[in-house]
Amino acid sequence: MLEQLAPRASDLDAALLTVENLQSWYGESHILHGVDFHIQPGEVVTLLGRNGAGKTTTLKSIMGLIGKRTGSIRFRGTDIIHASPHKIARLGMAYCPEERGIFSSLNVQENLLLPPRIADGGLSLDAIFELFPNLKERLASQGTKLSGGEQQMLAIARILRTGAKFLMFDEPTEGLAPVIVEQIGHTIARLKSQGFTILLVEQNFRFASELADRFYVVENGKVIDRFSKETLPANMEKLASYLGV
Amino acid sequence: MLGINTQALFGQLLLGLINGSFYALLSLGLAVIFGMLNIINFAHGALFMMGAFCAYFLLTWFDLNYWWALVLAPLIIGGFGIVLQHTLLRRIAGLDHLYSLLLTFGLALIIQGVFLNYYGSSGLPYAIPAALQGGTNLGFMFLPNYRAWVVVVSLAVCLATWFLIERTRFGSYLRAATENPQLVSAFGINVPLMITLTYGLGVGLAALAGVLAAPINQVRPLMGADFIIVVFAVVVIGGMGSILGSIVTGFALGIIEGLTKYFYPEASNTVVFLLMVLVLLVKPTGLTGKAT
């Protein structure tokens, strides 16, 4: 199985993000025990796994939000394992947290404009309102007065402005109505077609299977298997046993 | 009319308004610091006193007058605050409030001790600048120009600080980082730097209050210690961490104190604490505080 997991050297050379033997700790508890994966430019990659497997911790570790981490995380050729979050962000990545992170002391407009532009080529406000027309009508509302779906849209929208081309979404569909899940799915597909690279953490497998090029299965703080979109149908039973569904 | 001596009443009201100006500036600084650093800055009174001494030193050593001091002292003492934050307070970030309380209280004692050692407890005179000497007869009362100036400057600085925090981009970073510093740093904003600058801002406000107080209260090592106890009561009443709340409560309590001095002088030293007890009984988070 290990040989199957090991990426080809040429893959790693071209990769936008390469994570090798990533270990992380929350205080005394050792959460990640060696996570390995990589993403090519323009790919959508999904981390699958049960609750508590270490998917969110993996995203936070990449973003530099976990205090103690070892191993190697290379982003655009720079090793960022010891970098602080604001420097990592400035390299061109953006993060949409599971709890959405809408600020209650800021109105919708302030929330939307909060992340500074870190590179050229971010979406204009007009383009964002075209994706999420609801937000335009709610600009003066307090951020946390929005519905759950609108908050999720705001959380996605604000990182599209920044010019970051590598986006990490942590469970963007959690707890949302099917029609909104569909809208978020369309948005992610559209971002992919515009050349964004996306790392997705999802419990909603059906949602992820329609979007992702490749899948990694995380369990007990390790990547235990991986599938491509093509090999997935033949391995549905195996995947079901991993996810316990 | 009704046996009210308007001259004395307005006199006490003005005195209250002056004290309120200092309460507002000091509690505003405490609120800004508490919001961002989540510490209660017990060194605030000592830093206020350092602001007054800084004005005194600028005048006697460098011949820089009051107007220079008004600009330079907040910058110098604010810079001193930045050094304190960077070398000491930063190390206890995230620990229990007790640690920051002990550290800042210890700092206050050390700073006051050093100044007491060199200057004793009696005051050094600091003259009112020539342009603000004298007063204006308003008909119903005599208004000393310098005192009017203090109220106006304090109001203007409080409003400017409110505007900075509630209406500007830097302020939106600050409010967001108060809620969720991790996420703000993940957007590419240098949160540790913002924390340091915020402490500098809060200390700068205290130093500015110190310069304003120098011609009124004389420059004394314990001038801050006297003030700060009332200011903490103001902060508790207004609600910790609320910008507008600390400004309004600061001025309001100064005025209430002034009115008490006129109507029932015996209670004037305790009225703020009585109010604090009442507010804590009814609304433990303070008048404008949010439940956490």
Overall description:
The complex is a heterodimer of chains A (245) and B (292). By secondary structure, chain A is an alpha/beta fold. A six-stranded mixed sheet of chain A has the order 6-7-8-3-9-10, sandwiched between helices. Chain A has a four-stranded antiparallel sheet with strand order 2-1-4-5, with helices on one face. Chain A is globular. Chain B is mainly alpha-helical and 292 residues long. Chain B has one domain. The interface between A and B is medium-sized, with 25 and 19 residues.
Please summarize the sheet with the most strands of chain A. Answer: 6 strands, mixed
> How many distinct helices of chain A?
11
- The helix-and-strand class of chain A reads alpha/beta
**Poorly predicted runs of 5 or more residues of chain A:** none
Morphology call of chain B: globular
Q: Could you tell me the radius of gyration of chain B in angstroms? A: 19 Å
Radius of gyration of chain A: 18 Å
Strand arrangement, major sheet of chain A: 6-7-8-3-9-10
The pLDDT mean of chain B sits at 89
Share of helix of chain B, binned:
over 70%
Tell me the helix content of chain A: 25-40%
Oligomer state equals: heterodimer
Give the SSE order of chain B as H and E letters: HHHHEEHHHHHHH
Notable features of this structure?
heterodimer; A: 245 residues; alpha/beta; 6-stranded mixed β-sheet; 4-stranded antiparallel β-sheet; 36% helix; globular; B: 292 residues; mainly alpha; two-stranded antiparallel sheet; 11 helices; 2 strands; 73% helix; 2% strand
